[in-house]
Known about the structure:
Blueprint: H1 11-40, H2 50-74, H3 80-110, H4 115-145
Helix pairs in contact: 1-2, 1-4, 2-3, 3-4
Amino acid sequence: MQLSRNNPNGYLAxxxxxxxxxVALLYLGSYLGRIxxxxxxxxxxxxxxxxxxxxxxxxxxxxxxxxxxxxxxxxNHRKVNKTVKLLAILTPIGIILWLVAFIFISQxxxxxxxxxxxxxxxxxxxxxxxxxxxxxxxxxxxxLTKPQxxxxxxxx
Length: 156
């Protein structure tokens, strides 16, 4: 009789690592983008939005992938590189889809709420939706690449 071993799949490590990494580097990228605008584009108008947005995008992308890699590697899970490569592919797709959906829903709700109510609603919904998307992408990447437990009737 063989005792069952508790083999963690790495879902929680992937999700927490991705969340911490993405949030940290998302804000760092935004901050560096704003500093760039202040230093090198003092008379910028609308084009002053481009560096912080690019910084947020790159920070979110790199932070999510790097955080997932560090968490899975630290916990000695299998198939870390495969999970991280898939997450690196899924993250920009998820960010772009989130942005399109967020803009679309904001425009739909804009006719029902005043400007101040809409601003308050966006400031509450945006971080929650970003966090949920980060967790879903990390879970999906780990689910699609999770190591299968060895079958008890196979010989290896």
